[in-house]
Every structure is written in C-alpha cells, then in structure tokens.
Amino acid sequence: MLTHQPGQEVLRSILPQDLDWQPFPAFPPAARLAVVVRNPSEPALYVVRVKLPSGERLMPHRHTEDRVYLAVSGVFYIGLGDTFGEERLRAYPPGAVVVPPGGTSHFHWAKSGQYVTQVTAIRPISLEYDDPADDPRAA
Fold this sequence. Notes:
Blueprint: E1 32-37, E2 45-52, E3 57-62, E4 67-73, E5 76-80, E6 89-92, E7 97-98, E8 106-109, E9 115-122, E10 128-129
C-alpha cells in the first residue's frame, strides 16, 4: 500500500501554526520556506510553502520541475521573463492557482505586502537564477 507520507498509514493534518519556517539558501535572507509534505530534495511529490516579506523580490529564475503555486495569503505577484519588469507582473489573490511549466523564467515580488504561496511539484526542488549575480548562494 502506498501511503501519503513515508511510514504513515493514517490521516495527517498540518496546521499553519505548526509549520517550521526556515531560511532557504537560494532565497534572499528574509524569505522563508516551510516543508509541508515530504522532503523536497527527494525525487517525489513534495509540498512546500514560501513566505516572502513585504518588498522582497525573487529575481528571474527557473525550476526544472513543473510547479503548481497556490496563493495562500497576501497578493502573489509573478511575472514571466528572464529580466525583472514591473510591467510584466500579474497579481493573484489568495486562492488563485498559477501553473508555470518547468524551465519557464519568472520572478516574484511582494509588492503590496507579505505573501505566502504553496508549491506542489514532483522531483527534487530546484531553483536556478537567470543571472548568477542574483543568486544568494554565490555571495
């Protein structure tokens, strides 16, 4: 029998107050990531949440995996392209779902305040900046 979590055969609930928000090396220092379901570094389905504080940006980047973003709180601003452009941002309210295919260059901005998104994907988590100078791991 395949379980929804490794080693788990019963219903599991995850409450927002139980999430463990941690820095993520590929994000700006103020951004946080919380693992919701499974280890995102493994080649399987994973669910994480991303919290981007007001004013923070994730510069143009891409992921190898197809992703499903769910806007949980705040307004999720995302734009397509390999250069940041405010005119290309689209605003998504809580409850909106955004599905960029793997390899699509895009960027985020917490333009109107902090937002939280939930990311569902299959594969190990990935993030590659279009401009290596934007990558916090290179600092």
